[in-house]
Amino acid sequence: MDQESFVMQACDLMEDIIHANSTQQDLNAAIESLLDDSDDSDEAMDDLLLLSEVRKLTQIDDEAFLLEKLSLLFQQVRVSTTILRPYHQHFVTPDGCNRVTWSNFESKYPVGIFQRLFRFKQEHVAVLIRALKIPESMSFEGYMTSGIEALLLMLRRLSSLCRYADLLPQFQSQVFNGLCVFLFKKIGPHIRRIDHEWFTDRSKLELWSAAMLEKGCPLQNTIGWGDGTHIPVCKPIQGQRPWYCGHHKTHCFKALVLTSVSGLMLGFGPFDGSTHDSLAADIVGLDDLLMEHLSFDDGTHFNLFLDAGYRVGHSMITPYRRRRDMTPDELEWNRRMCRDRVAVEWSIGKIKTLFKMLTYKKNLKALLSPVATYFFLAMHLTNLHTILYGCEVAQYFNVDVEPLESYLRGFR
């Protein structure tokens, strides 16, 4: 950390403590209270020493000397094992200068940089909180935070390659992982099923199929694509074999991604890194699910197109297998079908472009963090991003993205 940032954070700490003890009398009263109630614990002693040092600092007039002493005090706080800023219960105030609230988040993060940092615009933060049903205040392992603070923490961590140390003093791992798990318990079962109204409505399927035909798709009733993706992770300290993918030569977990013509995604997984894409589809019974939910009483059924690594099914369509005696018609059919299949790559790429944490394996520590939770939560957030701002897939096929209310109906 450079000297300027160090001094700024030290001043933030000083201001936060002074907010909690606005006068010299309040500061003295806090010290006397600690002396009376002290249980000789490390936490109580650290608090007492910190307040005593702060009282001394309030009596210093020389600015240079004050900054020097403040920096030394802040260094003591940063290396302490019991004073955890700013989420620890001690010295946390609702209006602390280093907390993110509804009243200050716009000034802390100007419009010009907000979307680059958090992937969403300032005016849509409230929309996200309502869509994700994040409560006004939350507590994770004793660490208190507000809903907006936890949301911005999660978005910033997912969308960057930064470490927790780079996000201090505002962000900590307990809040990030706590919110991710909290949200995954809500959306996990729903993002991994296909019987959503927006995905199985016949009028919507016919609209998507017509858009595909207009772009030159040779197969009628095709409404989307499927493909597998792998997320590299750190080599786990035990049980390494299931995580290792011999094809990609890395430890990872895999997911099966389905993309509609409107650009919204659903997924299945996680699967072991050694699992083949076709086996993953068979594990979840993808072809049976498509037949159940995309077939109608008049005999009409809709299809998904997948690459040649999958087996052919009733509603799972793949290219003609390569052979020496392939006809020109078969080669042309493959070319036209595979040309549009790149849309599923666009969708997977959008997840990993928006939320770059998924591309940095050193931040994804298998068996220590809920790494698969990050991916499916990022998929849901990418769908919300697509609904709010559009996507390349919907623009290419000239179709409208589902309204937010229609999409969220399947997550209730």
Which short descriptors sum up this protein?
single chain; 412 residues; alpha/beta; 6-stranded mixed beta sheet; 18 helices; 8 strands; 51% helix; elongated
Write a structural description.
With 412 residues, this protein is of the alpha/beta class. The protein contains 18 helices and eight strands. The chain has helices at 3-20, 24-37, 42-57, 63-79, 105-108, 111-118, 125-132, 147-158, 164-167, 173-191, 197-200, 202-214, 277-284, 286-293, 328-354, 371-389, 392-397, 404-408, and strands at 137-140, 143-146, 222-232, 244-245, 250-260, 265-272, 303-305, 316-317. The longest helix has 27 residues, at 328-354. Residues 81-94 have low confidence and may be disordered.
Give the number of helices: 18
Query: What is the alpha-carbon Rg in Å?
Result: 27 Å
Given as residue ranges, the uncertain stretches (5+ residues, pLDDT < 50) are 81-94
Topology as a string of helices (H) and strands (E): HHHHHHHEEHHHHHEEEEHHEEHHHH
What fraction of residues sit in β-strands? 5-15%
**In percent, how helical is the residue content?**
40-55%
Distance between the termini: 44 Å
Structural class: alpha/beta
Main β-sheet description: 6 strands, mixed
The count of DSSP E runs of length 2 or more, i.e. the number of strands, is 8
Shape: elongated
User: What is the averaged pLDDT score?
Assistant: 84
